[in-house]
Amino acid sequence: MSESLFCPGQSYVTDSYRDGHLRTFTGYPAMNDDVKKMLKGYAKKKKYSSILIFFLDSCGFDEDYSSFLMREFARGYI
What residue ranges do the domains of the chain occupy? Predict the structure, then answer.
């Protein structure tokens, strides 16, 4: 199998939106301060799967939007 499955320029995630992901949504959902604090704590501990599970199961978001939100928390944008 090939070592890289990405197109040229898409082999890494950047801090901008040029990371190879197609988005059909904009913005962040409304979250209270306690939820943000919990999710920021997960991000600080690098428990990204917990963030993803929260958005998928508790919030009912689809996988694309949940992954986007997880990346935004990991980068510290939310």
Answer: 33-75
